[in-house]
Amino acid sequence: MKLVDVVVRRAMRIRAVRVGSKAVMRFLQHDGPVLSGHMAFTALLAAFPFVVFLAALSGLIGDAETADHLVTSLFQFVPVDVAETLGPPLASVIEERRGGLATFGALGALWAASNGLEALRTALNRAYQVEKEPAIWWQRLQSIGLVIAFATGISVVSSLVVLGPLGWEFIERLAAVDSEDELAFSVARYAIATLFLFLMVMALHRLLPNVTLRWARVFPGVVFTVIAWLVVSTLASLYFGSIADYQATYGALGGIIVTLLFFYVSAAIFVFGAEINGWGLEAARRRAHVKPPVEE
Q1: pTM, whole model, 2 decimals?
Q2: Are 225 and 266 in contact (CB under 8 A)?
Q3: End-to-end CA distance of the chain
């Protein structure tokens, strides 16, 4: 049994190395570094409109204070330097547009935020070798619908994170709890947020590219994306917070540079995860003697 276990572990390691090397080759062949830069820039441009629309949606669900708390909670999952760079400008924009968030301002923000998803669509179509795309108007409608769905989901999940401490205080009044219970409660809150992130990435892989994919086919790349992003986000927070001295090089632009760098690395992780799935899909097509691409 021990020999079998050793053989299985070695086979898994070899397969992981093979898949990783193929994904790296595809990442470079499909201009992954260039696409990641495009996605990072587009994400920065779309971040403000998306948060404005998120604030509008949250304001409709609750009050203005609830919207502010929900928007603030988004920065709990990014490095501190990124939050300090984007937080004040976003707060200023939301405050200035408070009166018209639920009208044409939110509609314009919705349209602008959908541009970010179009950049993701380009990367996914490249990774899955999609040659024929649907009509532009259908792609835009789909992106707008996803922005609305994601904003609604983020509002709900953020409520769990933000309102979690209040819920814990209520539980403490009803029953005797200890520190271990509080830790479990906190872990559960962030586990739900991580699960929602996983489902969002799964939805992007399934809905954006013009190719029919099974859930199992996109699972490996999505798992890699979520885990790698969480690890990189944590390490980036430690690095920028205690080691890096980017202000000595970039001065007042240091926060912007760090934000763009974080967006770039996040985009590269997303593209690399898609290339992992793309290689698996290509290998399956070869085994089944199916000529790519499989179009909807």
Answers
A1: 0.78
A2: no
A3: 46
Cβ contact 28:279 at 8 Å: no
Residue at token pair 């509609």: 107
Could you give the CA distance from residue 283 to residue 209 in angstroms, rounded to a whole number? 18
- Residue recorded with tokens 């820039």: 41
Rounded distance between C-alpha atoms, residue 147 and residue 228, angstroms: 23
Q: What is the pLDDT of residues 230-242, one digit of tens each?
A: 888 888 777 776 6
Token representation of residue 251: 């001065």
Q: Which residues, 6 or more positions from 1, have their beta carbon under 8 angstroms from its beta carbon?
A: none
Burial category of 164 from C-beta neighbours within 10 Å (exposed 0-12, middle 13-18, buried 19 and up): middle
pLDDT along the chain (296 residues), means of 10: 54 67 89 91 82 67 54 68 75 60 61 86 90 84 86 68 54 58 64 83 91 88 92 79 64 78 92 92 75 54
CB 229 within 8 A of CB 77: no
Report the C-alpha gap between 31 and 235 in whole angstroms: 26
Tell me 41's DSSP state. H
Q: Give the 3-state secondary structure percentages of the chain, helix then strand then coil, rounded to 5.
A: 85, 0, 15
Q: Alpha-carbon Rg of the chain, whole angstroms?
A: 21
Residues in the chain: 296
How far is residue 140's CA from residue 137's CA, in Å, rounded to a whole number? 5
Domain ranges within the chain, ordered by starting residue: 24-288
Q: Are 49 and 89 in contact (CB under 8 A)?
A: no
CA distance 85 to 258: 9
